[in-house]
């Protein structure tokens, strides 16, 4: 079959691969709508280590083509929403750990981009279909559902890790699509002052629509000092949803004592993270530092869709560019890689 992906580090293009085999618990899906992600381009550039001959993509909704003999909930022809994280639910890492993201190894549940081809193929494989596929919720559009599988799930996980409470002062660093979802989630969780950090006018506009009370830009000076000045001493909770290796230290520096820093941004394998000791109160400031990959499975995505169905959030605001046709995956991927000033999230309608 044909798919678009990573030929080698720094080189992407069309690939010819063997059609995936459906196991007894699994399903084969034909994508209907897909979306490239920064994680795809990050992987292509070698940010997660050397890989080659790998179909990329981990955000899709589609139609079931084939199911294994033990699958009970789905049949060929069903329309499904596919979480980007598809754990092996029998693994000890899921049964005994704090996160379902690491079933057999670090990021083991993120099988697309990791241990198998992704969704930018003519068809793709989903393990343990009954636990890892969600039927489209009535009243939710396919493109709105597509934004739940990674952008919403990841952004909201930052909010969950930060444990945002009523009236907390919250900062979201980076208001790309994941950061915008973190802003929306923080508002739903009861944040008081909610500060987004970003520069793109379309992202700034949507951040305010999702509930940001303030937006600041690195172009206007040191972001730490701007937050300290705005808040009179710092934020209770800071979510890192973008930036560079320096962002980690900045996040710690703008967080008040007894606050929480939650990271949902991928750093590079070559990065070293550091912070000023004083920013952590010489190690005594009781600032919690957390980082985690979004949970997986059908139940989480079903809950995300419930929020859309009942009007809590409109995820389609993230969609800035649309393409039509399987061959347009290349154009959408290149756009995501280039990150043009008007980009938030591109989607490709295949059918």
Characterization of the model:
The protein has 351 residues and is an alpha/beta fold. It has two domains: 170 residues, Medium-chain alcohol dehydrogenases, catalytic domain (Quinone Oxidoreductase, Chain A, domain 1); 128 residues, NAD(P)-binding Rossmann-like Domain (Rossmann fold), CATH 3.40.50. Helix content is 28%, strand content 23%. The protein is built from eleven helices and 16 strands. The strands form three sheets. Strands 3, 5, 6, 7, 8, 15 and 16 form a seven-stranded mixed beta sheet that branches. Helix 5 crosses helix 6. The radius of gyration is 20 Å and the shape is globular. The two termini are 17 Å apart.
CATH third-tier fold name of the largest domain: Quinone Oxidoreductase, Chain A, domain 1
Going by helix content, strand content and strand pairing, the class is alpha/beta
Q: Helicity level, as a percent range?
A: 25-40%
CATH class of the largest domain: Alpha Beta
**CATH architectural arrangement of the largest domain:** Alpha-Beta Complex
Strand content: 15-25%
Shape: globular
How many alpha or pi helices?
11
Structure summary, number of beta strands:
16
What would you give as the CATH superfamily of the largest domain? Medium-chain alcohol dehydrogenases, catalytic domain
Flag low-confidence runs: none
Order of helices and strands: EEEHEEEHEHEHHEHEHEHEHEEHEHE
Intertermini distance: 17 Å
């Amino acid at each position: 079959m044909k798919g678009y992906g990573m030929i080698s580090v720094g080189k992407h293009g069309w690939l010819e691969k063997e059609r995936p085999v459906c196991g007894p618990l699994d399903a084969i899906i034909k994508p209907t709508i897909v979306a490239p992600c920064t994680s795809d381009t990050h992987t292509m550039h070698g940010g997660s280590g050397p890989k080659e001959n790998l179909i990329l993509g981990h955000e899709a909704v589609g139609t079931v083509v084939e199911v294994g003999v033990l699958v009970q909930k789905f049949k060929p022809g069903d329309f499904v929403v596919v979480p980007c994280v598809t754990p092996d639910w029998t693994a000890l890492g899921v049964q005994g750990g704090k996160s379902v993201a690491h079933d057999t190894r670090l990021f083991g549940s993120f099988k697309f981009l990791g241990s198998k081809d992704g969704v930018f193929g003519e068809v793709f494989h989903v393990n343990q279909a009954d636990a890892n596929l969600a039927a489209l919720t009535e009243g939710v559009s396919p493109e709105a559902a597509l934004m739940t599988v990674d952008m919403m799930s990841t952004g909201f996980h930052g909010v969950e890790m930060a444990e945002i409470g009523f009236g907390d002062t919250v900062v979201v660093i980076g208001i790309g699509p994941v950061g915008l979802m973190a802003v929306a989630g923080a508002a739903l969780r009861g944040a008081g002052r909610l500060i987004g950090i970003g520069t793109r006018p379309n992202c700034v506009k949507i951040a305010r629509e999702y509930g940001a009370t303030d937006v600041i830009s690195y172009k206007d000076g040191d972001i730490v000092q701007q937050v300290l000045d705005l808040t009179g001493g710092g934020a209770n909770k800071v979510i890192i949803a973008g930036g560079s290796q320096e962002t980690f230290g900045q996040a710690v520096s703008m967080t008040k004592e007894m606050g929480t820093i939650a990271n949902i941004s991928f750093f590079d394998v070559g990065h070293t993270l550091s912070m000023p000791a004083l920013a952590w109160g010489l190690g005594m400031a009781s600032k919690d530092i957390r980082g985690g990959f979004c949970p997986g499975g059908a139940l989480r995505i079903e809950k995300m869709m419930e929020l859309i169905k009942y009007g809590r959030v409109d995820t389609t605001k993230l969609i800035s560019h649309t393409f039509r046709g399987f061959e347009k995956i290349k154009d959408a991927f290149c756009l995501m890689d280039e990150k043009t000033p008007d980009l938030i999230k591109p989607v490709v309608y295949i059918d």
